[in-house]
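# nightly structure sweep
# worker-07 picked up a monomer target from the shared queue
# config: single-sequence mode, recycle default, output format = structure tokens
# input follows
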Amino acid sequence: KHWELRTDLSLKDARQAGELLDASYEVYRMYLSNLPQVRNENLQAWVFSNRTDYLETVQSQTRGDSGVAASTTGSFIDLGEGRQILAVDASRGWKQFENVSKHEAFHQFAYSRFRIPLPTWLNEGLAEYFASSAYINGAIIPGQPTESDIKILKNAIQQNSVMPFLDFMRLNNQEWGQLTKRGRFPYTQAWSMVQFLVHSDSGAHANEMDNYLR
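# output follows
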């Protein structure tokens, strides 16, 4: 419904991938319904059954550091002139494909809704919020924290390794990149902050979150 899908997956797997992407789009649109579309929405998804094909394609399209591409299984690529590509490596099984797709597809959706780029913590936090959501019977149900994320977060709090909220909000893309070279915890902290702002205290902060996004 919402994506042009290019893939070498089997027809059955391609249909499942398309259904997941459509469900992702619908939940993004529902949860960000107060945000108008500000850019052309030409959603293309390139899904690869072979990791080498994924890496070579991402490298050729971004002309970036091959080491950066090698550390990913999904990428959002802005090609300019109204073309934005979601590229995903599907060679590592459905579960990882599902999580990566929900995360990276959010970045692609957000590009069409925010003229000013989101702060890094919020961009990644929202992407992780949707990535951790449950996908059941063709629908995505956000706000489903995993036991592993909760355990990681509690351990970080106990070890006093959580970055102060304001310092975390002020991270730029370069600082974020340096921080994530040490591990994935910044993504967990970003998710936890979004989870808190959307759901804590029976949703008492949700309106403030909406206002901030606008």
